[in-house]
Amino acid sequence: MKKILVTGGLGFIGSHTVVELQNKGFEVVIIDNLSNTTIDVLGQITEITGTKPDFHQIDLRIKNDVKDFFKNNHVDGIIHFAAYKAVGESMGEPLEYYENNFNSLIYLLQEMRDRKLDNFIFSSSCTVYGQADKLPITEEAPVKAAESVYGNTKQVGEEIIKDTSKAHNINAIALRYFNPIGGHPSIKIGELPVGVPQNLIPFITQTAAGMREELSVFGNDYPTKDGTAVRDYIDVVDLARAHIAALRRLIDKKNKKSFEYFNVGSGNGSSVLEIINTFEKVNNIKLNYKIVGRREGDVVVAFADTAIANKELNWKTEISLEKTLETAWKWQLKQTV
Ligand code: WQD
Asked: What is the DSSP string of 23-91?
């Protein structure tokens, strides 16, 4: 049984990926410093799969702790989620973001180099494209100067991996996520935003639950179908399954280069108002919202051309937006009981 290290494995995307790994017969070991999640998620994963993953509370910024972990744990692959990821926060805390997101990545790669470990999957983001000139966005779209510190950590992170992969023959794949949303159909794990949610879906569900007064829609004067910004929302379980597909590609040595990257989205663009209307319809709820000014740094439209990921990873999204928004609401209701 292949053993896979999942860093940030108790986080939103990490926990859903651990469930899919276990479902597919992998042994999982999790490293998480619990800075953006709770230990309860470990038990919730165990409830879903019946198998408790091995867990180590380690801060990947502490080089000796990373070294000690690998002294005692041989792994057949690493899926690296652990990173700070709040775009707005990153602008105010650049040094925290660069220290955490880069040092963690570098210490992991140094252990892979020194111990001749292979198969590295990196959590990247469509933010590397900024506002793409052509839509849908393919992997050929140029990487633009990052508009946030967070986005820069993903861009430079990919460069670090590319150079390391070449120099030390470590096979690696970066998955460039579009907008992950939703939760597990068991309603046992889902998104756990800390404080006031920055992202659209948790703000919608918290507003519907009465935790927030009303949703502010950031601008309706964009050159789009209804004036609100368009994004590619992907169910977190579909996204988790893309990681299994990428891992299999590396384990089965089907990768064509030592470093590859793929756009992981649904391929569909939805506007903010379309999301609101769909959420209201599937959950039979009236959402309280108002139109306000644009949010600085937002791109107008971003949605993926998924042809390469579909073909090369033999993967595509299967969960509908309606189903995802229904699950997101059920998960919110469970949080507010
Ligand atoms: C989506 C749309 C907002 C909140 C970010 C990161 C990206 C990834 C996903 C980490 C936009 C609008 C939002 C609100 C709103 N994160 N909105 N009112 O900005 O596309 O992507 O999160 O990997 O890297 O950049 O996601 O959910 O913040 O916004 O109108 O209260 O919803 O303007 O058009 P975004 P988002």
From this structure: HTT-EEEEE---SSS-THHHHHHHHHHS-PPEEE---TT-HHHHHHHHHH---SEEEE--S---HHHHH
Q: What are the CA-CA distances from residue 59 to residues 19, 102, 133, 268 (Å)?
A: 22, 13, 39, 37
Domains and CATH numbers, the chain: 3-181+234-265 (3.40.50.720)
Give the active site residue among 107, 129, 150, 177.
Answer: 150
- Please report the DSSP string for 237-278 in residue order: HHHHHHHHHHHHHHHTT--SSSEEEEEES-S--EEHHHHHHH
Q: Is the CB of 295 under 6 A from ligand 1?
A: yes
Q: How many CA atoms lie within 13 A of 89 on its CB side?
A: 13
Question: Separation of 276 CA from ligand 1 center, angstroms?
Answer: 14
- Per-residue pLDDT of the chain (337 residues), as tens digits, is 999 999 999 999 999 999 999 999 999 999 999 999 999 999 999 999 999 999 999 999 999 999 999 999 999 999 999 999 999 899 999 999 999 999 999 999 999 999 999 999 999 999 999 999 999 999 999 999 998 999 999 999 999 999 999 999 999 999 999 999 999 999 999 999 989 999 999 999 999 999 999 999 999 999 999 999 999 999 999 999 999 999 999 999 999 999 999 999 999 999 999 999 999 999 999 999 999 999 988 999 999 999 999 999 999 999 999 999 999 999 999 998 6
Q: Is 298 in the pocket of ligand 1 (CB under 6 A)?
A: yes
Q: Which atom of ligand 1 is nearest to the CA of 218?
A: 30
